[in-house]
Design goal:
The complex is a heterodimer of chains A (about 425) and B (about 325). Chain A is about 25% helix and about 20% strand. In chain A, helix 4 (about 175-185) crosses helix 6 (about 250-260), helix 9 (about 365-375) crosses helix 12 (about 405-430) and helix 10 (about 375-385) packs across helix 12 (about 405-430). Chain A has 12 helices and 16 strands. In chain B, about 60% of the residues lie in helices and about 0% in strands. Chain B has helices spanning about 20-45, 45-70, 80-90, 95-110, 125-135, 145, 160-165, 175-180, 195-205, 210-230, 240-245, 250-255, 265-285, 295-305. The chains are: A alpha/beta (about 425), B mainly alpha (about 325). The interface between A and B is large, with 76 and 45 residues.
Chain lengths: ~425, ~325
């Protein structure tokens, strides 16, 4: 953890870690006997589900919860479903988790193979959602979106993360294929590659649009890349897809390439594990592997009250169990020792102004937090720029009163979105 | 299945720069030590008694109020201690004990706790205490009578009071070097200008006070005093005399910067500081009081919420 410097006259600058020179190959984690999948759809007891406990699934089979379901997970092994249960995530988001016991006899379903010769976005969305890197195929396939640009990001969005940089460095020679494939699938010609500005051996990227991103923290966040490098001004409350830019991680782009080459979906996700001492190990694990399997194999120890961070230290989420599975977008897992965990407080804002100084979006955080603490979300959005926040987490990082500002901001945004969708549903019902 | 560890689950960010209200307050108190220590050497153990009583009674008032209001007792954040210490520094060494205790009551309860405690006070709590005490018992802050029994090797007159009553002719009796080295009659913590500047610079370097306010306040003092001085040097004293006397330096480095009653945006900080400095001089040169610092800062506290609305456009806001 980077602490406050003795000289506090200037605001602290966080640097994103760069991938180490000459990185080792990721350590392969064998497929475990029991796997866990998260299906992004809540269980509904009033409907007849397509899958039941004891059902057999084949390798490559897409598992849907209900007949009308759009969401699916692709099983990387064949086996028997032993449990289906609800899972509650951040902000009460409900998903379903499935536990699969691997069978010794592996049956393969290869519906995708017949489409693999002619890549297009519809079939990719139908068969390749949830491949490593989590390509935004659903967004790309949605006719409501009109993407004009694609940015393949080889930079990580948080300070300690290096997985995307590693993938870009290690597989740079495959980038032309990724570009050709994405062009062919989407028909979008304007594709750029975001990379750390220190990236060497640029000859591999001849003729490609390169975006060289500084290693200062937040330079790699999509709104900053758009504003600074693409000349697309940020609009509060709008996401990159509303501004017609699609961000796809370099790993996602490469897994699509490999899926089309091998004519079957890919399941191995590259993850950087950072232990309590800061030691990095890169592993390649099958999606659905519980993280305790990885920890056991590479010898990472955890103790009571430690924190398991999925993602980076400023924007990640904490997992509450080591049975949390490897997910398609899980780039980094950090173990934080219990003694390192900063305590938040219920102090009110003392108006010291550190948040205002550090905020890259000029949000008046000191006033905003007063409104958010009083649940005045609409006022916060109307008068105090709630939606200008680009969610970097720096305000909470420097807060002297240790207020969980970042969480208040996300809660405020979430509550407003919820209210908006409720109003829309009501209007539809009238 | 093995026994699972229970992990700490919370929201991002998972890092913190390690700062806290307690650290901030301890740093402010540490920065106030040079000036206070000099006061104790200059005015003897009586001064130490005042400072200790002031800190202790301020913390006690906060604890008592917390019990009465059924709030958790948080005196270990040293918020009350800082207020008490600054209050003590603004008193003469011979102040009666009951005045200290009454004063800290006003600082802590009236100045801060009734507004909701730390972070809720619209005015600098220390100055509320000083202002109310000065209005109620005028003689307490008459440094000439308060320190009448002391034998000093320098001019034993409160420079600002002398200036008020006898005009700028007295300025020659107070060499600037002597003033900055603490050879003047005044409050315990306000006489040793060099010590205050030292502590203040420490706080600026550590980032615990907003240097913009301090600099703007000093600029306001110098600019306004200079304008007065060039228009009529016979009637008005020089800028540096104003800067080194009374509560000016204490105000610049420790009082205008009180977090919850001062602005946080750049332009408002500059306006706030400059207005504060000008008001101080206006009160001194035209108003009825010898030292205008206290009322000037309370007045700028009043405009703080209004001017702090001047702020840069947020990211993506183009209108």
């Amino acid at each position: 953890m980077i602490k406050r410097a003795f000289i506090g006259l200037t605001k602290p600058k966080l640097k994103c870690d760069l991938v180490e020179p000459g990185p080792k190959e990721p350590e392969a984690i064998p497929i475990p006997p029991r796997m866990i999948f998260l299906l992004n759809e809540p269980l509904d007891s009033t409907r007849e589900s397509l899958i039941k406990q004891g059902d057999m699934v084949k390798k490559g089979e897409r598992i849907f919860l209900y007949k009308e379901s759009q969401e699916y997970v692709t099983s990387p092994v064949s086996g028997k479903i032993t449990s289906i249960a609800p899972f509650t995530g951040d902000f009460g988001k409900i998903a379903t988790y499935l536990v699969l016991e691997r069978e010794t006899k592996q049956d393969i379903e290869s519906n995708f193979a017949e489409f693999a010769a002619t890549p297009d976005i519809e079939t990719a969305d139908r068969y390749l959602r949830g491949t490593p890197g989590d390509p935004p195929l659903k967004q790309l396939a949605d006719p409501a979106n009109h993407f004009k640009k694609i940015v393949i990001t080889g930079v990580d969005c948080d300070v300690m993360c290096t997985t995307r940089q590693y993938v870009l460095t290690r597989f740079r020679d495959e980038m032309p294929k990724a570009l050709t494939l994405l062009k062919q699938m989407t028909g979008i010609d304007d594709i750029s590659i975001a990379m750390p500005e220190t990236m060497a051996k640029l000859s591999a990227f001849n003729g490609m649009n390169l975006i060289k991103v500084s290693s200062d923290y937040i330079s790699s966040l999509p709104p900053m890349i758009m504003e600074k490098h693409l000349g697309i001004p940020f609009v509060p409350g709008k996401e990159s897809r509303d501004l017609e830019v699609c961000f796809i991680s370099v790993e996602a782009a490469l897994s699509l390439v490999r899926a089309y080459e091998a004519k079957e979906p890919l399941y191995e996700k590259i993850i950087t594990i950072i232990d309590k001492k800061g030691g990095r190990t890169r592993v390649s694990a099958t999606i659905g592997t519980p993280i305790h399997r990885i920890f056991t194999q590479i010898g990472v120890e955890t103790a009571e009250q430690d924190r398991i961070i999925i993602g980076g230290p400023l924007r990640g989420v904490a997992a509450y169990t080591l049975y949390h599975p490897v997910m398609p977008d899980m780039d980094t897992v950090i173990v934080q020792d219990s003694s390192e965990i900063p305590i938040v407080s219920d102090y009110p804002c003392i108006n010291c102004g550190k948040c205002v100084r550090i905020c890259p979006a000029n949000v008046p955080v000191n006033v905003l937090i007063r409104y958010l603490e009083s649940n005045l979300y609409q006022d916060a959005a109307d008068s105090y720029d709630l939606f200008s926040c680009i969610e970097c987490g720096l305000c909470s990082y420097v807060c002297t009163a240790r207020i969980p500002i970042f969480q208040y901001i996300r809660l405020g945004k979430y509550e407003l979105m919820k209210m908006e969708s409720e109003i829309e549903t009501e209007a539809d019902n009238v | 299945m093995f026994k699972q560890n229970r992990f700490t689950v919370s929201h991002a960010p998972f890092w913190h720069d390690g700062d806290s209200i307690k650290t901030m307050n301890l740093n402010i108190m540490a920065a106030a030590i040079p000036a206070t220590l000099f006061g104790v050497i200059q005015f003897g153990m009586a001064a130490l008694g005042v400072i200790c009583l002031s800190i202790a009674s301020a913390m006690a008032w906060e604890a008592l109020f917390s019990v009465a209001a059924k709030r958790p007792i948080v005196i270990h954040d040293y918020n009350a201690a800082v207020i008490g210490m600054l209050f003590g520094m603004m008193l003469p060494a011979t102040v009666p004990w009951w005045a200290v205790i009454t004063g800290t009551f006003v600082c802590i309860i009236v100045g801060q706790q009734i507004f909701g405690g730390i972070g809720g006070n619209p005015f600098n709590p220390t100055l509320i205490g000083v202002a109310i005490l000065a209005l109620s018992w005028q003689n307490i802050f008459n440094f000439d009578t308060a320190l009448v029994n002391y034998q000093f090797t320098f001019t034993a007159l409160d420079p600002l009071a002398a200036l008020k009553h006898q005009g700028p002719g007295v300025v020659d009796m107070f060499p600037l070097y002597s003033l900055i080295m603490g050879n003047q009659v005044g409050a315990i913590g306000s006489v040793f200008g060099a010590g205050i500047i030292l502590g203040g610079l420490y706080l600026i370097i550590r980032g615990y006070i907003r240097w913009e306010i301090t600099m703007a306040y000093i600029a306001g003092i110098i600019l306004t005093a200079w304008i007065f001085n060039i228009t009529d040097p016979v009637k008005y004293a020089t800028p540096l005399f104003h800067l080194l006397t009374g509560y000016t330096l204490l105000g610049a480095f420790f009082l205008t910067n009180e977090t919850s009653s001062s602005p946080v945006n750049l332009i408002p900080m500059l306006i706030y500081g400059v207005i504060g400095g000008s008001l101080t001089i206006l009160i001194r040169n035209i108003g009825a009081y010898a030292d205008g610092t206290v009322y000037a800062i309370l007045l700028i506290n009043l405009i703080n919420p209004l001017i702090d609305k001047i702020r840069p456009k947020a990211f993506g806001e183009r209108v």
